[in-house]
Amino acid sequence: MKLENRYSFQGARQQVWDLLTDPKALQQCTPGCKELEEIGTDEYKTTMQIGVGPVTGTYQGKIRMAEKEAPHRYKLIVEGSGTPGFVRGEGILTLEEDGEDKTTVHVIGDAQVGGLVAGVGQRLMEGVAKQFMGQFFKCMQNQLAARKDAPAGPGS
Protein backbone atom coordinates (compact mmCIF):
# COMPACT_ATOMS: atom_id res chain seq x y z
CA MET A 1 0.00 0.00 0.00
CA LYS A 2 1.40 3.38 -1.04
CA LEU A 3 1.19 6.41 1.24
CA GLU A 4 2.07 10.03 0.54
CA ASN A 5 1.45 13.26 2.41
CA ARG A 6 2.96 16.62 3.40
CA TYR A 7 3.16 18.06 6.90
CA SER A 8 3.99 21.65 7.86
CA PHE A 9 6.14 22.53 10.83
CA GLN A 10 6.66 25.94 12.42
CA GLY A 11 10.42 25.72 12.67
CA ALA A 12 13.66 25.83 10.75
CA ARG A 13 14.65 22.72 8.79
CA GLN A 14 17.50 21.86 11.21
CA GLN A 15 15.10 22.01 14.18
CA VAL A 16 12.64 19.69 12.43
CA TRP A 17 15.47 17.33 11.42
CA ASP A 18 16.72 17.18 15.01
CA LEU A 19 13.22 16.33 16.19
CA LEU A 20 12.49 13.69 13.52
CA THR A 21 15.76 11.89 14.30
CA ASP A 22 15.40 12.06 18.10
CA PRO A 23 14.72 8.57 19.54
CA LYS A 24 12.74 9.98 22.49
CA ALA A 25 10.45 11.92 20.17
CA LEU A 26 10.10 8.86 17.91
CA GLN A 27 9.04 6.74 20.89
CA GLN A 28 6.59 9.33 22.20
CA CYS A 29 5.01 9.97 18.81
CA THR A 30 4.88 6.52 17.21
CA PRO A 31 1.32 5.26 17.79
CA GLY A 32 1.30 2.24 20.11
CA CYS A 33 5.05 2.38 20.82
CA LYS A 34 5.66 0.94 24.30
CA GLU A 35 9.44 0.56 24.11
CA LEU A 36 12.25 1.84 21.94
CA GLU A 37 15.75 0.60 22.72
CA GLU A 38 18.86 1.51 20.75
CA ILE A 39 20.61 -1.59 19.36
CA GLY A 40 22.97 0.12 16.91
CA THR A 41 23.62 3.39 15.13
CA ASP A 42 20.21 4.69 14.01
CA GLU A 43 18.64 1.28 14.76
CA TYR A 44 16.15 0.50 17.51
CA LYS A 45 14.29 -2.50 18.87
CA THR A 46 10.65 -1.71 19.52
CA THR A 47 7.53 -3.12 21.14
CA MET A 48 4.26 -1.75 19.81
CA GLN A 49 0.65 -2.41 20.84
CA ILE A 50 -1.57 -1.78 17.83
CA GLY A 51 -5.21 -2.42 17.03
CA VAL A 52 -6.69 -2.44 13.54
CA GLY A 53 -10.44 -2.92 13.58
CA PRO A 54 -11.16 -6.08 15.60
CA VAL A 55 -7.52 -7.27 15.45
CA THR A 56 -5.31 -6.07 18.28
CA GLY A 57 -1.89 -7.30 19.26
CA THR A 58 1.65 -6.71 20.36
CA TYR A 59 4.39 -6.50 17.78
CA GLN A 60 8.13 -6.88 18.29
CA GLY A 61 10.23 -5.21 15.67
CA LYS A 62 12.86 -2.75 14.55
CA ILE A 63 12.92 0.86 13.45
CA ARG A 64 15.92 2.01 11.44
CA MET A 65 16.97 5.30 9.89
CA ALA A 66 19.03 4.89 6.70
CA GLU A 67 20.40 6.96 3.82
CA LYS A 68 20.57 10.04 6.03
CA GLU A 69 21.42 13.32 4.31
CA ALA A 70 21.17 15.83 7.16
CA PRO A 71 19.09 17.99 7.28
CA HIS A 72 17.42 17.13 3.97
CA ARG A 73 16.15 13.55 3.89
CA TYR A 74 16.29 10.04 5.29
CA LYS A 75 14.63 6.68 4.91
CA LEU A 76 12.67 5.30 7.86
CA ILE A 77 12.31 1.51 7.85
CA VAL A 78 9.86 -0.23 10.21
CA GLU A 79 9.30 -3.95 10.54
CA GLY A 80 7.49 -5.96 13.14
CA SER A 81 5.70 -9.20 13.78
CA GLY A 82 3.36 -10.62 16.37
CA THR A 83 0.44 -12.98 16.81
CA PRO A 84 -1.86 -10.86 14.58
CA GLY A 85 0.62 -10.91 11.67
CA PHE A 86 3.42 -8.76 10.37
CA VAL A 87 3.98 -5.24 9.14
CA ARG A 88 6.82 -3.89 7.03
CA GLY A 89 7.16 -0.39 5.76
CA GLU A 90 9.57 2.20 4.62
CA GLY A 91 9.24 5.84 3.86
CA ILE A 92 11.38 8.64 2.55
CA LEU A 93 11.08 11.82 4.61
CA THR A 94 12.21 14.92 2.72
CA LEU A 95 12.47 18.23 4.58
CA GLU A 96 11.89 21.34 2.47
CA GLU A 97 12.40 24.91 3.67
CA ASP A 98 9.17 26.85 3.33
CA GLY A 99 10.04 30.41 4.19
CA GLU A 100 12.17 31.68 7.04
CA ASP A 101 10.85 29.60 9.93
CA LYS A 102 8.73 26.92 8.28
CA THR A 103 9.53 23.44 7.06
CA THR A 104 7.43 21.05 5.01
CA VAL A 105 8.03 17.34 5.46
CA HIS A 106 7.12 15.34 2.36
CA VAL A 107 6.57 11.65 3.08
CA ILE A 108 6.39 8.94 0.43
CA GLY A 109 6.03 5.43 1.79
CA ASP A 110 5.07 1.87 1.13
CA ALA A 111 3.77 -0.69 3.63
CA GLN A 112 2.91 -4.37 3.58
CA VAL A 113 0.89 -6.31 6.14
CA GLY A 114 0.19 -10.01 6.46
CA GLY A 115 -1.54 -12.52 8.70
CA LEU A 116 -4.77 -11.84 10.61
CA VAL A 117 -4.24 -8.09 10.44
CA ALA A 118 -4.32 -8.22 6.63
CA GLY A 119 -7.75 -9.85 6.81
CA VAL A 120 -9.42 -6.58 7.84
CA GLY A 121 -9.28 -5.41 4.26
CA GLN A 122 -7.12 -3.13 2.15
CA ARG A 123 -9.43 -0.12 2.35
CA LEU A 124 -9.52 -0.21 6.16
CA MET A 125 -5.73 -0.71 6.30
CA GLU A 126 -5.08 2.35 4.15
CA GLY A 127 -7.31 4.47 6.39
CA VAL A 128 -5.60 3.20 9.54
CA ALA A 129 -2.13 3.75 8.05
CA LYS A 130 -3.03 7.34 7.12
CA GLN A 131 -4.50 7.89 10.59
CA PHE A 132 -1.33 6.56 12.29
CA MET A 133 0.85 8.74 10.06
CA GLY A 134 -1.32 11.77 10.86
CA GLN A 135 -1.13 11.07 14.61
CA PHE A 136 2.65 10.69 14.40
CA PHE A 137 3.20 14.01 12.62
CA LYS A 138 0.64 15.91 14.75
CA CYS A 139 2.51 14.69 17.84
CA MET A 140 5.84 15.74 16.28
CA GLN A 141 4.42 19.20 15.47
CA ASN A 142 3.34 19.52 19.13
CA GLN A 143 6.77 18.34 20.31
CA LEU A 144 8.48 21.00 18.19
CA ALA A 145 6.18 23.71 19.54
CA ALA A 146 6.90 22.57 23.11
CA ARG A 147 10.66 22.65 22.48
CA LYS A 148 10.45 26.15 21.05
CA ASP A 149 8.36 27.33 24.03
CA ALA A 150 10.63 25.73 26.65
CA PRO A 151 12.71 28.21 28.65
CA ALA A 152 16.39 28.30 27.80
CA GLY A 153 18.58 26.30 30.16
CA PRO A 154 21.48 27.63 32.23
CA GLY A 155 24.35 28.97 30.21
CA SER A 156 22.16 29.78 27.18
Q: What portion of the residues fall into strands of 2 or more residues?
A: over 45%
- Cα Rg: 16 Å
Number of E strands: 7
Structural domains: how many: 1
Largest sheet, spatial ordering of strands: 1-7-6-5-4-3-2
Order of helices and strands: EHHEEEEEEH
Structural class from helices and strands? alpha+beta
Separation of the first and last Cα atoms: 46 Å
CATH class: Alpha Beta
Gross CATH architecture: 2-Layer Sandwich
CATH topology: Alpha-D-Glucose-1,6-Bisphosphate, Chain A, domain 4
The CATH superfamily turns out to be START domain
Could you name the ranges where pLDDT drops below 50 across 5 or more consecutive residues? none
Q: So how many helices?
A: 3
Largest sheet: 7 strands, antiparallel
Shape: globular
Please state the average pLDDT score. 89
Estimate the helix proportion, in percent: 25-40%
